[in-house]
Amino acid sequence: MARLILDGVEKSFHGAPVVKDLNLTIEPGEFVALLGPSGCGKSTILRMLAGFEKVSNGQIIHGDDCLSSSMRHVPTEERNFGMVFQSYALWPHMTVKENVGYPLKVQKTPTAERNKRIQDALEIVQLEEFADRLPAQLSGGQRQRVALARSLVTEPDVVLFDEPLANLDRHLRATMEETFRAFHKRTGATMVYVTHDQSEAMSLADKIAVLNKGQLVQWGTPQELYARPRNTWLANFIGRGSVLSVAAVAPSQYLNGANLHELIDQHSPDRAASSVLVRPQDIHFVSADDSALIVSVHSCIFRGERYDIELTLKDGHRLLAYSDVPMALDSQHHIRLGQAWSLEREV
Amino acid sequence: MTPSLIKRRFMDSASMDNQLRWLSIGLFVLIATISVLPSLRLLVEALSHTTFSTSSPMAEVLRSERTWIALRNSFYTSGLGTLIAVILGCGFGFVVTLTNIRGRGIWVFCFMLPMMIPPQVTALSWLQLFGPASPILNTLGIEPALGSPQPMYSAEGIALLLGIQSAPLVFLALRTQLISLPQDLLEAAQLSRASQFRIWVNIILPLCRSAIIAGAALAFVSSLGNFGIPAMLGIPAGYIVLPTLIYQKMAGFGNDMLSQVAGLSMIIALLVLAGMLLQQWLQQRSRYALLGHTAQSLSFRLKQWRLLLEILLALVLCFILVAPLFALIVSSLVPALGMPLNAETITFGAFYEMIGRQGVTVRAFENSAFLAFSSALVLMLVSLPLGYLLMRLPMRTRAVIASLIEVPYAIPGIVLAIAFILLFAKPLPFIEVSLYGTLGIIFLAYLSCFLSVCLKPVLSAMSQLDPALEEAAQLAGARPIQRLMDIILPLTAPAFFAGGLLVFLISINELTVSALLWSAGNETLGVLIFNLDESGDSVLASAIAVLVVLLVAGLMSLLSLFAPRLPKGVIPWHG
């Protein structure tokens, strides 16, 4: 078990930068998600970790070894990493058992030990009785579990996941997330998980690196990202909520209700302004009083356990709120904001 | 350790894996030897004696009247042949692909057959169909009077056969395009209330234009380089085209015969090159990106017209395929040309004679089988690592190398044969062994000629493989050669065998290359048929030709068995 360090890693294809100056320190046994919209460079980072791509600049260090730098490139074959692919990448001409056992066969592990370890790996993903099937005879979820077993059979130091749930339906995803969580707990391996789905990242990872346009936007626990997003882009990307323009205020602090109402009142288009994030659960409907904000209902959508209400402030801003009861379109209401988080300007 | 040493070590491990590097170097040398070297040698020979004096061989070639006659004849026969190919190919292409006609697979198979039958066999079978000595006309009692001319010995006869032989090329190009036309396009036009006629004129024809042009250009180029048909039909009538002119010049030894022949070859090669460039240019001008999903291809319901069309197709096939083959079979069963076939005259004598008594037949069979088998085997073995390495190259480099491999296949066989003669006429340097006059030179020429035939299916199968399959093996710790054997080979094996079988199929009865490279004792099947016919033994030639056709049809059927496990388009007569 060793620490995985990305130190100033950069990657460009034909002069176009894809990953810019990335610094991450991943502790042994940590479950890390790389999260971002498509084209943010997250898959490229994973492929550099696996050794499929060389780094253009910077270095990747694992324990005491330098895996990649502009001078050195340890080939994938020598890295002892495991990987689970979006397309499963199961070899269609091999049975489940042969697929899982292939890494051991390459390492020339004695047959008896090989069989035992295949058995163990299949047990973890609960596919013992499918050992002699071909991948074509399995369902999507089963195939991904075989891929998982294959990635862990050599007890790798690091397991990489490249959007492993993207091809599965919604119901299966929940089950597979549970499988991944159990797998992490049992093996204790370091895991790097690429996804564009924030709820997947939030529910699985110990730490998340959010990326946009090749750059690291924020690196922190899911709770930190949700409670204290750095800038407006991240606030719009993670969780639900509304970004409001208010009078200028220092970034990265929580504003209580009274201050917030004041800042909203003071805001005018010709003066410097800041952005704040208001989560829907912090918006309370109240009866008419002087300090309350007057809003009208723009839309009301039924979501099952509650209604999503989109409100229009008198200056035209939109706010997302939750309600237990439906509200008539264009009806007038009063609200009070509980708290808000002030954001950095997006660069 | 000094800093420079550390740097060296790091650089080494950063460069490509050792296994891959050696593989690349080996294959580079191979491609250079069998693909690029012959063409270069030809170029050098044609240009080396070029001085501005009027006595240089190239000037002599250009001054000779025969050159210009042959050039004009080549253009006439190939042009007319292309016209026939376009009419036949488009007719079949539209009917077989766009309508709900029955037994589609059989129609396609039968229509593709003429392309796979060697040209000299096609020519031979048509010769048996017409003329005063035709056994089939004699049997029916409607033979023309003795001494009346054989209608096939003419420019139009040559053009007709060139057209039939290359019609499948047009058919294939058109069919590939038609299959990819989405049904939506037709439905959208119908919703806009377009009539059937308008749909054809405004939608289907414009979208197929580039495919038809491409097919026509291919047909023209392949007719221009065809040797078998003009050799069998033109030489007896004294009608020369460029390939037969080269052949005749080779037969007559002269002072700078080789240089003159090289000059002539360059003329054909340039014409072919110009044709292919023109085709690419035209195709690019009229290509449309097709939107819409292709889940269902276009299809017209024919209703009462269906039976009529089926009968029409059958009649055309009867004329271009069944009748000549039937004539060929009949001629192989009569005791001598000019006799009718009936219960008293029928004899398998020709077969006994050829198989049992003539040592040359067995030898030619052995030679051809050996050549075809060994070139198929070697090319299969080469295609695996070559395809693998090509797939790892950047797109642009890959395109350049792929077209280099394509060159020997595209240039006519007669030109390639001249190039190989030039290359191997002298003993090899260092080892002082001469390949000229041995099977070895034919073998090398086949390797050069058919590399792209074998490589194409392999490349198309490899490009359809999910790269993650190999990456997963890489993560498992497998080195390149191990990945190749464990992962890539099993997954592309069908394409591999298909490539090998195609090479076997084409080379077992190849004529053009071997016509110039054979020597006594090293005859091939193609040469055997040609020589027998030239010396007047048409019955014996027919017997061999019947065996060859059976072999071709058998191998094609065998390939069809592979079809379900291959990427679309690998086997021409499946799609």
TrEMBL record, chain A:
Gene Ontology CC annotation, any one: ATP-binding cassette (ABC) transporter complex
One Pfam family per UniProt: ABC_tran
Assigned keywords, A-Z: ATP-binding, Nucleotide-binding, Transport
Matching Gene3D superfamilies: P-loop containing nucleotide triphosphate hydrolases
Any GO molecular function: ABC-type transporter activity
Top-level division of the source organism's lineage: Bacteria
UniProt signal peptide: none
UniProt entry tagged with the keyword Nucleotide-binding: yes
Domain ABC transporter residues, every copy: 4-238
Stated name of the protein: Carbohydrate ABC transporter ATP-binding protein (CUT1 family)
Organism, as annotated: Marinomonas foliarum
TrEMBL record, chain B:
InterPro entries: MetI-like, MetI-like_sf
Stretches assigned to the ABC transmembrane type-1 domain: 71-279, 365-557
Transmembrane segments: 20-40, 75-99, 106-127, 199-221, 257-278, 307-330, 369-391, 403-423, 435-455, 487-508, 539-563
Domain of life: Bacteria
Location, primary (coarse class): membrane
SUPFAM superfamilies assigned to the protein according to its UniProt record, in alphabetical order: MetI-like
Record-given protein name: Iron(III) transport system permease protein
Species the sequence originates in: Marinomonas foliarum
